[in-house]
Amino acid sequence: MTSPKTEIKTTTCYMCACRCGIRVHLRDGKLRYIDGNPEHPINRGVICAKGSSGIMKQYSPARLTRPLKRREGAERGAGEFVEIAWDEAFDILTQRLAKIRATDPKKFALFTGRDQMQALTGLFARQFGTPNYAAHGGFCSVNMAAGMIYSIGGSFWEFGGPDLERAKLFVMIGTAEDHHSNPLKIEISKFKRRGGRFVSVNPVRTGYSAIADEWVPIRPGTDGALLLAIVHEIIALGLYDRDFLVRYTNAGQLVNLDEAADDYGLLVRGTAAPEENPEYAHNQLWWDRHSAAPVRTHSEGADPHLLGSFRLPDGRSVKPAFQLLEERVKDYTAEWAEGVTGVPAATIRRLAQEMGIVARDQKIELPIAWTDCWGKEHETVTGNPVAFHAMRGLAAHSNGFQTIRALAILMTLLGTIDRPGGFRHKAPFPRAIPPAAKPPRGPEAVKPDTPLGGLALGWPASPEDLFVDAAGEPVRIDKGFSWEYPLSVHGLMHSVITNAVNEDPYRIDTLMIFMANMAWNSTMNTLEVRRMLNARADDGEYKIPFLVVCDSFQSEMTAFADLVLPDTTYLERHDVMSMLDRPISEFDGPVDSVRVPVIAPPAGCKPFQDVLIELASRLKLPAFTDAEGGRRYRDYPEFILRYETEPGSGIGFLAGWRGKGGEKFMHGEPNPRQWEMYAQNNCVFHHRLPPSYQYMRNWNKGYMEWAQRARIRRFGDPIILQIYSEVLQKFRLAADGKWGRRRPPERLRSRIRTYFDPLPFYYEPLERQATDGTRYPLAAVTQRPMAMYHAWDSQNAWLRQIHAHNHLYVSPRTAAAQGIGDGDWIWVESPWGRVRCIAKYSEAVEPGTVWTWNAIGKQPGAWQLGAGANEGRKGFLLNHLISDTLRSPEGGEISNSDPITGQAGWYDVRVRIYKAATDEPHETWPRFEALVRYPGMAEVVPETIAYDASGGKR
Ligand code: SF4
To answer: Tens digits of per-residue pLDDT, 691-745?
Structure first.
């Protein structure tokens, strides 16, 4: 008997979005088990329950294995399909898309979920010529990205994070219980062992909050009030880092307060401006304490007033930005914030003092010499060791952008940006404020048979960068970059279906969805969206005439498709976590990584990347076509090897092992052996910057020069932190008929004036303002559990043993007041609908909040679960209670989103709870028909489900 052949292959996990390194163990070519790769920089060998359960994803009976076409006459949603060949699928798509591209490319919309290939999907959309492209960011945490990047040039998670190696105090706000899972768990564990103090602010005490030294329960959507009160205290106590504010922020820069002027509220500028960066002039003025006169910012020997009121020689009244901030937070006292947040005023004061004192009195000095962008040499790098981490709990509210601005400003006042023990950037951040990439400026950017004239997603610096027509109305189907959501840097995926069906602003033809369960947990107002997916126009045609869904597994969404394209799993394909997208960079330098196939996919599956390359080649999109009009790339792996952003630029999707023999990095000629070199190096390329380039990167001359050589930055000018946001003020001025040429439509002017405040302010989330708080007194929120990444693991036999149904967690006090016992069936009702579910007592929730896990409840039969499975019987979906639109105070309906960024207001809904009647069935409501099995899907074989890592069958 021959002994079995065992192999270990390394690749990158994708059981969640953290991108840990894994080792996949195979015996005779069959997957046996998965463990963490000890040599991988992200997880250093650690693996979580999800990561090690990847094996059951491979054996899932919900796996799609053939392209499928909706059966003639079958209704969308019924899941009735016929199997077709890939050639037929490509023919259908090519014919349809070629016609759209030759007539009106915006009638094709491509929206993707939590994929990690946005550099490719974005390139495809742009080359096709459609502006209607975005990924999941708009319904996830775009407020976090935009609020931070428009303030400090970087953001949390993929773009930066807390330096827990040196922090003394760590404050986590509004973060799901295992966000940034293994990497953050590893860091928190070391931080706590070293004696660091960990404070978690969250309505729910689970996961990270459960191991915090102090849990600060807070009412959802009120974090902005807490942060502004802390800013108030820090300023009142003088605990801000004055030197940091003067040199590295616009705190000392003078703001024009002449209300009659066209540049009212903008920073005053000197005349001469010999600028390195034409997009960002550095000629603002300070009021110098020595000369008692205005001087150009950063003038040698000058020291600006941060407080005070001054008059320029020409008579204009001015104040430093910091003075305006101080005035802004004057009334945001701890007592006021207690009434809003439920956090006692004494706690707010104590936290503010602790932050300020740790930052001031426990400074770190690292013996690292560096030179700043103004040429001043520093012998050390200083750290004020207070670190923060925040995410969707802050972001997913319609007041989230201004809340996150408040957080960024608090971090700035404490002097913690890109310093040891504080927040640190990850390459390619910091970026300019705002980054240089811009959306197109008008409908003329969309032309038949032509790539889009600009990037589908970008960073507007003023109203001039909006993507609107001559009447100021949106060009994109999701209304991104319009006056409704000017800074919607990640698009508004949650509005696509509603807008397309309402033909507002126009009708589209084909909607392609990749990896997003828009008919279930990735959509607000699920029942209505499912109805809309089936809605027909007067001519009998579907209002969204053609719906393509690409995924690896059967789901509630695939059931609505006209065409289903079966994707591969993460263990079967090549993938790139690119510097052009969201790499896995570390604080010490750029890191990108790949996935390589470790097992073969089923014959009928195709990686979505290959699908895009094939379609792009058939449609002859310029970047995918050679000079003779032929196909340029055979497949995705070849595309990655040979593609360059411009001919000869030397910049491609991968930064490592470039150049003919792999001797270059960041840029260099294509290397035919690049994949092989990544595979030999744990699928990771990691470049460590010299220590003098690892800190203070917004203003670090050496780093800036390196970043220019590496082509990460075009200009080497300093990135000044924006305590006061001129970008926002320019929108306000436009609403007042000033600044630039563009004006918002009349109906949106007061909205722009109200929300585009250059200083952070607190307002109640829009939905809450419109809801009767007496009838609906409770906030309802969700979070994803540690053991499942949203809906991805609904079919995972091992993980289903941890979560097969969800409860609504309620404080015993709140429940008892309604006569609800632990485990009772109850109704949860919002102004938009009601859901029946099981209540569970929990002391770990703020009494005015109820919460549940996201995406555990399922449509019966979906994900190939048995029709009677607990997920469909006892599990429930809170999304039924959340509306995607609100009544606009200006009339009509408006998206339930942040008015600045379009971020979906997931966590703004208000509910009431009451006991279900004793004669009601003990099962969830609303009920749905059970989904059927599609052609090509495996029947559920109990032996396969029971297959385990020990090598036997139970
Ligand atoms: S945290 Fe777990 S699931 Fe996520 S990438 Fe790492 S091992 Fe995989």
So the answer is: 999 999 999 999 999 999 999 999 999 999 999 999 999 999 999 999 999 999 9
Pick from 15, 33, 57, 798 the residue to mutate for probing ligand 1's pocket: most ligand atoms within 8 Å of its CB: 15
Q: How far apart are CA 760 and CA 749, in angstroms?
A: 19
Strands 6-12 and 21-27: antiparallel
The two beta strands, 591-595 and 684-686, are antiparallel
Does this model's pTM top 0.70? My answer is yes
**How many angstroms does the Cα of residue 50 sit away from the middle of ligand 1?**
6
Residue keyed to tokens 């773009």: 159
Q: Is 16 in the pocket of ligand 1 (CB under 6 A)?
A: yes
Q: What is the DSSP letter of 560?
A: G
Distance CA 51, CA 36 (A): 8
Query: CB under 8 Å to 684, separation ≥6 — which residues?
Result: 21, 40, 41, 584, 591, 592, 593, 678
Ligand 1 proximity of 577 Cβ (cutoff 6 Å) = no
Q: Calculate mean pLDDT across residues 633-640.
A: 97
Residues 119-157: tens digit of each pLDDT: 999 999 999 999 999 988 878 889 999 999 999 999 998
DSSP secondary structure string for all residues of 156-219: SBTTEEE-TTT-SEEEEES--TTTTHHHHHHHHHHHHHTT-EEEEE-SB-SGGGGGSSEEE---
Q: Is 18 in the pocket of ligand 1 (CB under 6 A)?
A: yes
Residue with token string 């007033």: 305
Residues in Cβ contact with 919 at an 8 Å cutoff, skipping those fewer than 6 apart: none
How many angstroms separate the CA atoms of 103 and 99, rounded?
6
- pLDDT over 80 at 160, yes or no: yes
